[in-house]
Amino acid sequence: MKKEGRKRWKRKEDKKRVVVSNLPFEGWSHKENPNRHHRGNQIKTSKYTVLSFVPKNIFEQLHRFANLYFVGIAILNFFPVVNAFQPEINMIPVCVILAVTAIKDAWEDLRRYKSDKVINNRECLIYSRKEQTYVQKCWKDVRVGDFIQMKCNEIVPADILLLFSSDPSGICHLETASLDGETNLKQRRVVKGFSQQEVQFEPELFHNTIVCEKPNNHLNKFKGYMEHPDQTRTGVGCESLLLRGCTIRNTEMAVGIVIYAGHETKAMLNNSGPRYKRSKIERRMNIDIFFCIGILILMCLIGAVGHSIWNGTFEEHPPFDVPDANGSFLPRALGGFYMFLTMIILLQVLIPISLYVSIELVKLGQVFFLNNDLDLYDEETDLSIQCRALNITEDLGQIQYIFSDKTGTLTENKMVFRRCTIMGSEYSHQENAKRLETPKELDSDGEEWTQYQCLSFPARWAQDAATRRSQKGAQPLRRSQSARVPIQGHYRQRSMGYRESSQPPVAFSSSIEKDVTPDKNLLTKVRDAALWLETLSDSRPAKASLSTTSSIADFFLALTICNSVMVSTTTEPRQRVTIKPSSKALGTSLEKIQQLFQRLKLSSLSQSFSSTAPSDTDLRESLGANVATTDSDERDDASVCSGGDSTDDGGYRSSMWDQGDILGSGSGTSLEEALETPAADLARPEFCYEAESPDEAALVHAAHAYSFTLVSRTPEQVTVRLPQGTCLTFSLLCTLGFDSVRKRMSVVVRHPLTGEIIVYTKGADSVIMDLLEDPACAPDMNVEKKLRKIQARTQKHLDLYARDGLRTLCIAKKVLSEEDFQRWASFRREAEASLDNRDELLMETAQHLENQLTLLGATGIEDRLQEGVPDTIATLREAGIQLWVLTGDKQETAVNIAHSCRLLDQTDTVYTINTENQETCESILNYALEELKQFHELQKPDRKLFGFHLPSKTPSITSEAVVPEAGLVIDGKTLNAIFQGKLEKKFLELTQYCRSVLCCRSTPLQKSMIVKLVRDKLHVMTLSIGDGANDVSMIQAADIGIGISGQEGMQAVMSSDFAIARFKHLKKLLLVHGHWCYSRLARMVVYYLYKNVCYVNLLFWYQFFCGFSGSTMIDYWQMIFFNLFFTSLPPLVFGVLDKDISAETLLALPELYKSGQNSECYNLSTFWISMADAFYQSLICFFIPYLTYKGSDIDVFTFGTPINTISLTTILLHQAMEMKTWTIFHGVVLLGSFLMYFLVSLLYNATCVTCNSPTNPYWVMEGQLSNPTFYLVCFLTPVVALLPRYFFLSLQGTYGKSLISKAQKIDKLPPDKRNLEIQSWRSRQRAAPVPEVARPTHHPVSSIAGQDFSTSTSKSSNPPKRKHIEESVLYGQRCGTERMRDDSCSGDSSAQLSSGEHLLGPNRTMANSRGQTDMSRCSKRGSHRRSQSSLTI
Fold first, then answer.
1. 3-state secondary structure of 849
2. pLDDT (tens digit, 9 = 90+) per residue, 836-866?
């Protein structure tokens, strides 16, 4: 029992790491230090040493089958009984190949060694007990338990727990660009209990023990606790951990203790090196190599059997059959076996040894041209395509499925505040909508400066100081530079630099993002709310009421406070703004402003300052609708600067009135702005906001537009300036950060005026609406009625926002008593100090706090489509590529975006499945499959599902008989039901009938599972494209992963195979470069295999005339030169430069891409056709010279020279016939290879007197060149050999029906005729053109009982109408008994809702009255709560 207990305790301890200070053990032996088991900080990424390089590199190269094969053949040739060539000469080709690869590996490893040396010898400050101070040591000398002192702009040498910061608040700012590419600053705080240090941290007084988790690669996760000498514990997390490789910013000094060092740091554990992917052509090539091995074995067997039979024809042993020392001869069977091995050595070139090296070189050339394509360069971000995986370029031409993220990939990821609802009243912000409708925003500084100069005097006077500084003609240094410049040292200048650029100073700082035009109706109410806020005091706390004024104040306070935004200024963009706590007015008082107006006799303007009675708009009838969450968990850190100017239809308005905006006007040039003194403007620099998500930044900008300005933030307090200039400083008691499970964020603050403890929460609507207080618990009926109205109308507005494609967030609050908060805070501290189940305990404490909330309102944020997305999607679909969108966003938002980007069409039948019940899911899938099969009049396909094409449609006379296109929309819960219920097969079968699939509310894990499911079950080529960290698993699961270098950092890019700046670049990348790369490489591989088989067969035919003795008629040096020099360059030029079709034609005719999807250039049939052609050509090249010289007395090399010359000429001419593009390089290489053969042969034959005794090639070529027969044979034989291929290519070019051959004909026409032909082609191919509308104006909806399954079609499609009737009968009975979640597709997106209008109701007159009644009843349910079927029990 004791042993078992000890084992259990040891296993438990193995999961932990215990760290103590090294100072008490300084000077002791290494064995006595308790930290001795932890690794040091020296890193080694190089693989070799001087001694281990040769054996280790050879061992690694022999892992490639081809290398192992050729080394084995070379070793076999050293045995005298089987050798066919001189052993030393036979080693030359394989040694050359191995040496070239070894040199490349040595060069790469040398670079890694030098990089390691530089990093290991960087210096840092380590505390020494002996010296009583910090001493400089190298990074490699750092050990776990050491105390490290870091200064501003220094790089963190190891994973360090922060114990001291020079910042009074205990904050240390980090830049993590080297880890995740994100340039915005992260805040790390000192461990609790160490932040109140008045003086310098004393390491010798540190006697605590740190217990934490074992090293792992989770960058954003760390849990542990610090045990004090009095046995008390303090929890530590990732908010106190400084990761190796990050850079200290805006902090003069920081001190910490090393927790993980060297290869155990999180950065090194994440550095797994480049991933190796095998392309489809390489997999196909490996199969064909085995076919070639089979051919080789067959030829060797024929040689062995032939040798035995030939020897059997002699009555006595022939004179060349030499006996052994005992005078005995080899048995015939053993001699046949030896001849088998000899034939393998002789015919070894059948397997092309140089093919793999040639493929590597060709791919390097293809990547070079990819990187230098200006069409794939984005001028705005100054980014071009990055090819991070060099070995799968040809897969770009064979893609059949694309899986795309939505936010940031299809959309701009520019979050723009669009509209909001507060206490059930909707504020549409029409002026803001007009501003967003402008066709093109002026983002460049030069254009803003031009616009600024054109303004009238008062408006220009109101500009901020940063804008005035731009008059000098210089532009501030862009922050985006830091993500792309590799860190070379510890220092990076913090002050303003200048360079010419058109990029905004900070990410998300374009005018369209930061400038929000307020709603005039809401603006007056905000002013009243701000004035009411100042009347609060300790004696008159804000009672819990439903008044509009108090709710508006809380709403904008929540927008300003409930975030993690860091405030800085444009003059010091990395310096955090801090303000001492003060509740006094820092700006000009309201009375002084009014007196100023009276003196100026502008009393008409001062009326806008007077208080007006709160007025609510008429409440309309509420309707229940879908409850879903936003995609804010997909967003990553982003930097946001609030500043700059904008113009709108109402005239000029500065959104950055934080320098002195007392009460700004909504539109026009207000006189308040004109009277603002420049001195005040210069005194208060412009604020920059660095947020962790673009949604947060958009909300802070929106609050700022209404003059609720976030002024400063520290770990203990946050300061907000009100419209009248008063600053309120809230004590920040606790922050519950956003996570993808809770889908919300909360802050707990103490109100500076009332002293109340308030919880402000923002999050996804589906989550927040379920956490609201129950109206039934209200004290009286009036309050209950009003609460229900507010919640119902807010839900209606949320559905309206979602149908408009807006991202929605709900805002709520809760007031806590002092006792409740203290009790909760103690639970929270216990959870933070726990090591086991820490995450679960923290989640539980958050759920205890975030309940019984009071709804304040909701916001709608717009994320616009990227330029060129609809056209790109339409083109990719024409190319035969099926596009799926996998997003975590709301269903309605995703559907709306799908219509905008032409993923779904108005005429499509859209199947929407929302259920978490497996049986229900299965029945719905069966029903949908049955219905679609009836439409297509086909049975369930039993073939391997290839591509996305629907079963072929038979043309019909009437338009009503045309099969409608189908789309599928499912959510994450349905995906869980499909995966858990083993319904993948039915799901995939259903998707084959759908032109597009939308997976909403999907988690990163579900995204990768879908990609793997489609890739493995359908055996198709997949591509995933995304821009955020949540897309990494999806990108890695696909055959090709593409990262967008966007706003969300570089995690997606770092995990991808290719990185592009815009989604629209995907069109040329796939249709042009993908097609070229596949076509070139596929035809080059086929040519290589043909070339070697053709040449080796010459030696095989000769065996029939030399008694299968394994001898050759061609000198071995000539054979080596043949593969290494004479025929190696033309395939390389062909693989890099050949263009079978021009880029313009490929883009104009996307259907041409299907040739790559179908592997038309390289498949089983093309391989065997080329093999047959190789056998035929080898027969001609051997037997025509044989018949010509038959009966003559020429020697063996004189016979072999014309055969060698003929084969070279035939192979080069064959290559010329395969080339579709002719450039100077093609001609020079082909002609040069031919001339090089004669030059080398002449020199070799003239100098080689006794090279290959007894038969030597001396003067053979010179003799042949003087013989007319040689010329005649060398001219006629290639013509006869190539005649069948030439005839075949001529027929193919004249009568070929393939798309490629037709396009090649079009390419040869003059430009005007070519354009006419392309237009004619497109008109024939496109029977039904793609609609040009960006958003459906009318989309009828049919709601089905339970809403587990819904469909939407246009009015004009008759078959779908019949479908709705059937569904009503099938599912109508369940409407009254089951409370299913309402989930409808797009409806009329009208902002005006008349009383009693059923927004989600059916818009079609049904033939079946019962079905209509049931469906209407279902759609009228008005509860915002989740239904029973959607709840997770």
1. helix
2. 788 888 889 999 999 999 999 999 988 778 8
pLDDT tens for 590-618 read 344 344 434 433 333 333 333 333 333 33
d(CA 687, CA 684): 9
Are 121 and 138 in contact by the 8 Å Cβ rule? The answer is yes
Rounded CA gap, 226 and 236, in Å?
7
| Cβ atoms within 10 Å, residue 368 | 11
- List beta partners, residue 426: 421
CA 676 to chain centre: 47
Query: Which residue of the set 405, 528, 908, 1173 is catalytic?
Result: 405
Q: pLDDT tens-digit profile of 326-347?
A: 777 778 788 888 889 889 888 8
Residue 592, both tokens = 């002084």
H helices of 714-817, in order, are 765-770, 781-803
Output b/e per residue, 163-186; b: 16+ Cβ within 10 A: bbbbbebbbbbbbbbbbbbbbbbb
CA count, 13 A, side-chain hemisphere, 688: 25
Alpha-carbon dihedral sign for residues 1297, 1298, 1300, 1303: positive
Two structure tokens written together for 392: 């799968």
Average pLDDT, integer, range 452-473: 36
Among 739, 792, 764, 694, smallest CA distance to 1000 is for 764
pLDDT in tens, 953-1000: 333 333 334 556 889 999 888 999 999 888 999 999 999 989 889 998
Burial readout 332-357 (b: 16 or more C-beta within 10 A, e: otherwise):
eeebbbbbbbbbbbbbbbbbbbbbbb
d(CA 179, CA 1050): 9
Q: Rounded to whole angstroms, how far apart are CA atoms 357 and 97?
A: 8
> Contact, 298 vs 181, CB < 8 A?
no
670-704 pLDDT per residue, tens: 333 333 333 333 345 578 887 777 788 889 989 99
Active site residue 405: yes
Distance CA 757, CA 755 (A): 7
Give residues with Cβ within 8 angstroms of 1213, minimum separation 6: 1278, 1282
Three-state secondary-structure class, residue 742 = coil
HEC secondary structure over 1171-1223: HHHHHHHHHHHHHHHHHHHCCCCCCHHHHHHHHHHHHHHHHHHHHHHHCCCCC
**How many angstroms separate the CA atoms of 1159 and 1404, rounded?**
47
Structural contact between residues 1262 and 1246, judged by C-beta atoms closer than 8 angstroms: yes
**Contact criterion met (CB below 8 Å) for 471 and 452:** no
